[in-house]
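#lab-general

N.A. 3:47 PM
ok so I finally got the sequence cleaned up, no stray characters, all 1108 residues accounted for. can someone with queue access submit it? mine expired

B.Y. 3:52 PM
send it over

N.A. 3:53 PM
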Amino acid sequence: MVADRPLRASSLKCSLILASLAARLLQRPDQLTTFGYLLKGRSCSSHRSLLASSLPTTSLGKMRKWRKAEPDMAWGGYGSQAEAPQKTGASRAESSSNAPVAIIGGGLSGLACGWSLRRRGIPAVVFDTGKRGPGGRASARTMKVGSGTQVVDHAVQAFTAQSPEVRELVGLMESDGAVRRWQGLVGDLKADGKLQPRNEKMDGPLFIGSLKSGSGALADWLASKQEVVKDIWVAKLGRISDMAWALQGRRGQNVSNAYRSFSYVVIAHNGKCADQLINTAPVQTAAHAPLKCRFTAEASKSSDRLELCSLWACVVKVPKGLATFEGAFIHDNAILSWAGNNSAKYPPSGGHDQDVWTLISTPEYGSANKCPQEAIPDHVRRKVSDEMCRAFGKLLRGASTSWEVVHLQLWGAANPLNVCNQHFVHDPQHQVGICGDWLTSPSVEGALFSGLALAAALERELRGGGLGGTGARRFQGLTGGHAIGNFGGADGLSVAAAVEAATRSGGKGQDHGNSEGKGKGMGKAREEGAYPAAGGAAKRPLVERPVIKPAQAAASVAEPSWPDLQVAATSKSRWRRTENVGVPVTTLPSNSYRSTAPCPGPASAAEGPKWYFGFGANINPWKLREQRQILPLEEFVGKLPGWKLVFNHKGGFGNIEPLSALISHGASSPDAVHGVLLLLKAKDFDKLAKMEHEYGTREVLVETYDGRSIPALAFITPPQFKLSASLAPTPRYLKLIRDGCDSMGIDPAYRSWLQTVSSTPSERGSEYYAVQGSAGQKLKKQQSEGDPELLHLAAVASFAVAGDTPLVDIGANLGKCSAPELAAQLVRASAARVGHVILTGCSIKSSKDAKRMCEEWNGEKGVQKALSYLGVASRKELDAAGIQRLPTLAFTAGVHPHDAKSCDGNTISTLRSLAEHPSCVAIGECGLDYDRMFTPREVQLEWCRKQVELAIELDMPLFMHERDRDAVKGAPLGSAGDLRKIIFESEIDPSKVCIHCFTGSDKDLKEYISRGYQIGLTGFAAMHKRGAHIRRFLEAGDLPLHHLMIETDCPVMLPDKQYLPDSLGIKGRTNEPCCMPAVCRAVAECFRVAPEEVARQTTENAARFFGL
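B.Y. 4:20 PM
back already:
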């Protein structure tokens, strides 16, 4: 005992020295080696524990990173020697990074990769050097010509789309007007001046850009749907850890203020700049070899380098009608390889009497006249301009060449002359990828396909799909292509097939990484747990983090642990990272929480980022990112102990409540709510709060899966919007939550419990909306003198369409409105001069509800009922407006395809009985919906046929629904064709068929019109972005006015705000019948007629069709 005292004193002295040194090292991180070796078996475990406990939490993180920097350090007991941790086989999805993918290069391939990653729920940021915008070679200029302007394609001229995914993408662009089909005469121009036209049936159509932006519209469309950082030069790649990259500018600064690290780096450009960039990386990757390049005019048969050519683009004004063709691939010419008439592709604005052509040189001519492309010498400019114009004049049989050159450009790295015959390069070990048309098919399609394929590969690898590295093959000279790009595209190959091929090959092509590719790794060296260092230096062991269990995550900070530990709950967990961007982390007991009173208002935009805990549909990355356009700065999975997910929010939506507040809690129910912890920008949180407008905010303490506790805000239902009991949610809402939990790697036991939650088999009834906030409390409030809920009847009346013809809303869904809400909506509809509202029956229950509403709200009885629900101020408005009657209600009786699965042997007899009611004017809404497939296809077809037969039996009109699979989900499934077949085989009078809420294609519309069907248009026609294709149909006269009826389809399909004055008092995104004038005006705008004419004709059509 006596001998132990000096040892304790010595130990205390040593500990104080270590603590002092640690404090100094916080100021001098460059001394980390000294610090590391002091802990390398030279002090007892108690010293290390005391030292660790003396450091603040942020310092501990630094200490772990320093330990990472010294892989040979010992972290065992006294005198022990550390061993490198063994590989665990954990998927990339189990890594601790939710940092985005960095895509360097804003050409079409990089943009397509970013767009596809975003659709897959994977955050990505594109960095583009272009000062004028992204797009690379797919760019255009608007040039002043004469007194007008001309859109000019000065690189990409046209493109094909043969692979399924590229066709789908181009189809989306085409529907938004970003691309068009080139209908002009295009072919191969021989030396004798004869033109051989393209065979469109064999080669497919050629696509060009939009009228306004030319080929630049492709990049603009892609960029508008993702995050693109413009005019930025990434000069250096750095590694923060073996799982994270950093991007730096020329001066060493971080290129992005929003992101400090990136989970992957995708290089989406080539040439010297790309080669220089990859060589700044501190590790040797699979991207190093294929990015080596050289410039030449003639490709080698086989090469270990990418070979690039240079091309001149000359834009010249020539007399109109000089050539009989609009575009030509020029053969056997030493100077020119292409000539295209921009004025034919993009009609000029303003006046000029000349055509503007783009001439493109051959690679040989580009190489022979190469110069600095940023500063072309005057003598080179004159020489090239003269020679290219003379060559074109000679092809046109000696035409005069005294033409004005309006633009001359040298594309230094214009096109590859060889390819390595693979669609992407992927190094999962170092988190690097390459995409670009130069890998396999120099063309727009090749660029798009490569980006889409790499995105699919990254998703598969990140989510545990087992995709191996692809390495890079030797380059082979191109055959059968053309100087301005191989228009052969991807030969119809699908992205899935390309990724599958890469998976099967496992990198069997030449790896260029000093090893032959074998298996699913990047070569033998990688299989042995080593990788080649930069410059071929000696190999060193890989350091991989072990996968730990939740119980291990809360281990003492004094114990040895690897940096950036995260819990791998399942093989699908993803996008987690440990940096907290300066947001404090509170280490409180896991069962604690703090709360504040519900606060309905959004946060101040001036405040910093906010942690938000999502437990409902916002768990789903697709819902949050794609639909709501919100990109989190940070993202973790976590749980809220002592709370339960319930569905007692108005409409049967999700809410959370403390277990202590619940009367009963099932033994099998989880004791915590699991979800996602998101760090949102203040403006994004405000945006989300407005969308969740009937929720309040409450601060809770969320426990992340790695054991930390972080205060966050959650949206919780206030009393006025809470149902008296938890009800079954809708199948769609429950599926969003389940899919989100699967995607985010939520605890398997919690996901299993969600599978036991039942959903409502049919349409929600009034019990889903019987809350104090929308009925009792609002009624009490409105019946007081200080009624703040004005109906804005004066504004609505002035908004009505002029003339004597009242409008007919042929499709409205009002069954979910409370009685006070319905009273207000009907009064406002009357003020907007809506004479009839037809309530849509979508199920047996909603059809019966519609019948009851007609009985209760029509005539004087309805007026008196409405008055009983209006407050004093609203009744004064009513008197001032002189409104004495409400719109006449009618209804349809039918079963929507979503609810067809609930049909049974009594369905048709019940519908037949409902149809006998005098207010029933049609059978429907029936039909086919192949988008969500809530009911199997065969069942939809069966009950659609039966309802068509019922309409024939009763000699009643058919009110029909048809929707095909959304383009973002895949190829169409043919719902329109199936519906036409059913109608045709039934031999029903076509004039008794109405396709309600039409949003389909031009082809389907023309088919419906040709058969004599009526078409119903909603506020979709008043949406300039979503409904752009419908507006084009109207402008083109594809839908005659005598075949048209209009509707709101409320509460959805709200027109754009430009058609709805603020004075109307329309709140949020809720549509209602008083918005009918907006639909009428939008249609009239497209037809270029007065709204009164549209009102007159559509009301006549509706009266005739429904027998009103």
